[in-house]
Amino acid sequence: MQFKDYYQTLGVARDASADDIKHAYRRLARKYHPDLNKEPEAEARFKDVGEAYEVLKDPERRAAYDDVGKRWQPGAEQPPPGWDSGYEFRGGDADFGGFGGEHSDFFEALFGRARAQAQRRAPPRAQDHHAKVQVELVDAYRGAQRSIRLQVPMLDAQGRIGLSERTLDVAIPAGVREGQHLRLAGQGAPGFDGAPPGDLYLEIVFRPDPRFRVDRRDVYLDLPVAPWEAALGATVDAPLPDGSVQLTVPPGSAQGRKLRLKGKGIPGKTPGDLYVVLQIAMPPAPDEAQRKAWAELARLHAFHPRADMGGR
Amino acid sequence: MASQLSLLHCQVVDEDLHLSLSELCRACGAEHEVVVQLVEHGVLQPQGAMPAAWTFSGPSLARARVALRLLRDLDLNLPGAALAVELLDEIARLQRELQMLGGGARNG
Fold first, then answer.
1. Domain of A283: which CATH number?
2. Total domains in the fold of chain A
3. Do B5 and A169 touch (CB under 8 A)?
4. Is A181 in contact with B6 (Cβ distance < 8 A)?
5. For residue range A41-58, what is the model confidence (pLDDT) as tens digits?
6. Which residues contact A74 (CB under 8 A, 6 or more apart)?
7. What are phi and psi of B51, to 5 degrees?
């Protein structure tokens, strides 16, 4: 288990005031909030920042954490003896839910597992649950089947919260888009006193594919072509999310030219289009014969790419 | 191995799916008053004159959840969250425009 330096996470000194800690937290929470920051590591950073603040904003937790920090041996994988005893936090009121819901092993070892505080009582009506499901872009073309494991808070006979795991096999229909929700009727929280169960919503997240960019139903592909393919035209193979296609590059194509493959985007009532964006790639350093050929090309062209910049 | 489970089919929450105010509230775990305020601040634009008759298009759910997360996680007030959602729309529009302009001008 790694020691977590919560001060470093928030970028504050060990003797920072409560106000400094609050300001640092607010700034970093805005910076890394996953709805505002689409970088892949943003959500993890947001959780780290939230966990650090949860500890450092509370004077008692902060004191306990400082005490552990003083006794922790640099580089040690093991906590100091007795480090997690004596603090009255087990089963405490750590926040739960949303992006900030999960804690590191370090946090849980020190402060106990977070309890679903909002759900200590039986909710007045069955609740709808949410989960994310990651799919490949090709799944949006063909549809897919996913097994989804969910940890569901359950009330036992004494009214205490426990977590139970259940697995659902879900058919993901073709045509789904990033950020879209799917509704599974009756798969949310169980209803009490005869009330019908809630629904489960799955939010679609595409696993990033370095070859393709997706905008709603349209898909973009950067396709490298050789300078002579762009100049003379060519027939080339281009990958598609669900296969490949032979594509005619028209002669005289400029860098960035977009070729539209109508209806080859994400399927739907109005299917999206796939855009192939030509990227003219330079061959590696030329040998002597190739250098001569380039020089011959230069001689034959009266081409001044910077003519409208007033220079040469 | 877990026991064999039957394959569950789901409903896509898209423009064709309509949610009542109560359904939307339940789906995003929010109180009626908060969703009514989201409408008053223009974050959500339901069809229908009165709250009891409102219907929200499917994508309203994702939009409401973003606004609610911003409210909760960043301690914003409603006008602040509404402004943030509008700016996120604007960023998404600009990114689309950037994408239309060609592969070289790519973000991220």
1. 2.60.260.20
2. 3
3. yes
4. no
5. 999 999 999 999 999 999
6. none
7. -45, -40
